[in-house]
């Protein structure tokens, strides 16, 4: 399985952009990068996913490097409600990955006033 | 569109008992997967069902089982409960569970075993 490496924690000032890095140096060509976040005691919330191209939605932007070995999740204007654990996940190959997300420890993001 | 619904939200059971948790996926989603979350082990994949068949399975003992009904609703069962089964159990659904699909989670069922 392709593995991901994320910083354990990071702080961000409210109103500023939060840039969350993720390394996935062993990613294969058909493996997607997914980002989820989990606010304490709630189910994980889907943020965004991508294969090769950069992606943007109403929550965030996902920047994937050309070699696909790393990516960055960008929360453009962090709010206190963005305080959560953020998970970067690489989905393994098509048949092994039915319904399966392999979560690591994630990055604890704390947004401060 | 309603999200993934899990019931019950909280429950307390005694060691040795069994428990059944229920999950209603997002309308139109045919893949349902289950996860266990504990402080020590984090989020771990239990199994995935599609069209009433288990299609993928994590590394859990046989005490953990599940099923899916023709309307895609799913249940998971844990028999002979142990203290270590205390956890947040999460259900997730996606259109077909394939890579590239978005997987959406419910709020979970908190199980405490005493």
Tell me briefly what this model is.
The complex is a heterodimer of chains A (113) and B (114). Chain A is 0% helix and 42% strand.
Structure description:
The complex is a heterodimer of chains A (113) and B (114). Chain A has 113 residues and is mainly beta. Chain A is built from no helices and nine strands. In chain A, the strands form two sheets. A five-stranded mixed β-sheet of chain A has the order 1-9-8-3-4, with no helix packed on it. A four-stranded antiparallel β-sheet of chain A has the order 2-7-6-5, with no helix packed on it. The relative contact order of chain A is 0.34. In chain B, strands 2, 4, 5, 6, 9, 10 and 11 form a seven-stranded mixed β-sheet that branches. In chain B, strands 1-3-8-7 form a four-stranded antiparallel β-sheet, with no helix packed on it. The mean pLDDT of chain B is 95. Chain B has 114 residues and is mostly beta strands. Chain B is globular. The chains are: A mainly beta (113), B mainly beta (114).
How is this fold's topology laid out?
The complex is a heterodimer of chains A (113) and B (114).
Chain A: E1 9-13, E2 18-23, E3 33-38, E4 45-50, E5 55-56, E6 61-64, E7 70-75, E8 84-90, E9 107-112
Parallel strand pairs in A: 1-9
Antiparallel strand pairs in A: 2-7, 3-4, 3-8, 5-6, 6-7, 8-9
Chain B: E1 5-7, E2 10-13, E3 19-24, E4 31-38, E5 42-50, E6 53-57, E7 64-68, E8 74-78, E9 87-94, E10 104-105, E11 109-113
Parallel strand pairs in B: 2-11
Antiparallel strand pairs in B: 1-3, 3-8, 4-5, 4-9, 5-6, 7-8, 9-10, 9-11
Instruction: Please state the overall shape of chain A, judged from the principal axes of the Cα atoms.
Output: globular
Classify the helix fraction of chain A into a percent range: under 10%
C-alpha-based Rg of chain B, rounded:
13 Å
Helical stretch count of chain A?
0
Oligomer: heterodimer
* Strand residues, percent of chain B: over 45%
Radius of gyration of chain A using CA atoms only: 13 Å
Portion of residues in helices of chain B? under 10%
Mean pLDDT of chain A: 91
Q: Any low-confidence stretches of chain A, pLDDT <50, length ≥5?
A: none
Catalogue the unreliable spans of chain B: none
Strand portion of chain A: 35-45%
Largest sheet of chain A: 5 strands, mixed
Strand adjacency order, main sheet of chain A: 1-9-8-3-4
How many separate helices of chain B? 0
Distance between the termini of chain A: 39 Å
Would you list the SSEs of chain A in sequence order as H and E? EEEEEEEEE
Shape annotation of chain B: globular
Main beta sheet of chain B: strand number and arrangement? 7 strands, mixed
């Amino acid at each position: 399985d392709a593995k991901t490496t994320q910083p354990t924690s990071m702080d961000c000032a409210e109103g500023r952009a939060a840039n969350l890095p993720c390394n996935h140096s062993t990613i294969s060509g058909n493996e997607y990068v997914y980002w989820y976040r989990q606010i304490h005691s709630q189910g994980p919330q889907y943020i965004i996913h991508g294969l090769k191209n950069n992606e943007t939605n109403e929550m965030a932007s996902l920047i994937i490097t050309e070699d696909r070995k790393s990516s960055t999740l960008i929360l453009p204007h962090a709010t206190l409600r963005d305080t959560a654990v953020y998970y970067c996940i690489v989905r393994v190959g098509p048949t092994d990955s039915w319904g399966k997300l392999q979560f690591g420890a994630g990055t604890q993001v704390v947004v401060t006033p | 569109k309603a999200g993934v619904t899990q019931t019950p939200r909280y429950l307390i059971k005694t060691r040795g008992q069994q428990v059944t948790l229920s999950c209603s996926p997002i309308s139109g989603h045919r893949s349902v997967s289950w996860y266990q979350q504990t402080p020590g082990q984090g989020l771990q994949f239990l199994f995935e069902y599609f069209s009433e068949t288990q299609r993928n399975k994590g590394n859990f003992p046989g005490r953990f089982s599940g099923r899916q009904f023709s309307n895609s609703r799913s249940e998971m069962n844990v028999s002979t409960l142990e203290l270590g089964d205390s956890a947040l159990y999460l259900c997730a659904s996606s259109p077909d569970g394939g890579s590239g699909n978005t997987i959406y989670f419910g709020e979970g069922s908190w199980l405490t075993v005493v």
